[in-house]
Specification:
Elements: H1 7-20, H2 22-49, H3 52-56, H4 62-98, H5 113-148, H6 152-177, H7 180-187, H8 192-198, H9 203-236, H10 240-248, H11 257-295
Length: 308
């Protein structure tokens, strides 16, 4: 019998994990949001130290340019920190799904070989994706250029069809590779080959799972945005459309940082939990799909001890 995983069970895994370890969800969100707070603090420092006329000037002052360069450098470091945190949080989520009975400390956040494997696999997939995109672009351009002098319409059409077909092929490859990261943690090794084998015959299910995850995330975000808009309108009398019209007229709203900062700090707790929740809902299904397929693997295939 062909191995398969349940899409509904995979989708439910993130919600089950949230119910089982709510404090871990919050901790994952806190560390994920921390770099954004750093960037926000840098922006407050910049806007507090630079006059608005300097920002709007056609030739900004040397002080403004220097501060902007410092901001760009520090925000770049914050982005690197964000990626490293994503690796740690993703590894923690995968372990929580694959090994639910394993005792953990600090929400499962740590620095070890699991994190190294996740980082290496993610980097390999990203590099392969960009290399493939460049190759596809060059091939499509070469086909279009070769036919250009024969028929411009045929050249454009064939070039677009080539790019479309290659794009679909890359998408399929990404779906085939999406279980390599959780398999690497489950098997305790760089599971490029075992993770690839796990997805054989599972492309349509993985496609359905990925689309369902995107739909759930978008639905949650749209509902929350609607609630926030209603709260702002009813509680503070802020009309988003009038605010947009005011900004179009060139009259920026006055910002009272002394009032805004306490509110931002108060919102940090629920927003960080929301970030952890969305990350869990997004990543846990792949670990559950991996766990299910590994449990159905033939006895001669490598499997993690916890899955039997």
């Amino acid at each position: 019998m062909t191995a398969a995983f349940s899409i509904s069970e995979a989708l439910a895994s993130g919600f089950r994990l949230t119910r089982r370890r709510p404090l871990h969800i919050w901790l994952w969100g806190v560390v994920s949001v921390a770099p954004s707070l750093l960037v926000g603090a840098l922006m407050l420092h910049l806007f507090g130290a630079v006059a608005l006329m300097d920002m709007a000037a056609s030739e900004p002052s040397a002080a403004f340019v220097r501060q902007m360069m410092q901001f760009q450098a520090l925000s770049g470091l914050a982005n690197i920190l964000q990626m490293l945190i994503w690796v740690a949080v993703t590894a923690a989520i995968f372990r929580a799904v694959l090994f639910p009975e394993q005792p953990v400390r600090f929400g499962g956040l740590r620095v070890g070989m699991d994190e190294v494997r996740v980082a290496v696999v993610a980097l390999a997939v990203i590099v392969a994706f960009y290399v493939a995109a460049i190759v596809i672009g060059l091939v499509a351009f070469a086909i279009g250029a070769g036919l250009w002098f024969v028929s411009e319409m045929a050249a454009v059409a064939l070039g677009l069809l080539t790019a479309l077909a290659a794009g679909v092929a890359v998408w399929i490859v990404l779906l085939r590779a999406c279980l390599i990261m959780p398999a690497s943690i489950a098997l305790g090794d760089f599971a490029f080959v075992p993770g690839w084998k796990l997805t054989k015959g599972q492309v349509l299910r993985l496609l359905g799972l990925s689309l369902a995850i995107v739909a759930i995330i978008l639905a949650i975000e749209l509902i929350l945005l609607g609630l926030i808009a209603v709260i702002l309108f009813l509680g503070a009398g802020i009309n988003i459309f009038s605010l947009a019209a005011l900004m179009d007229q060139g009259a920026p709203p006055t910002v009272d940082w002394g009032v805004l900062i306490p509110w931002a700090l108060a919102a940090f707790v629920p927003l960080s939990w929301l970030q952890g929740f969305l990350t869990t809902v997004m990543m846990a299904p792949y670990a559950e799909a991996c766990r299910s397929l590994l449990a159905q693997a033939p006895q001669d295939e490598p499997r993690p001890v916890a899955l039997g």
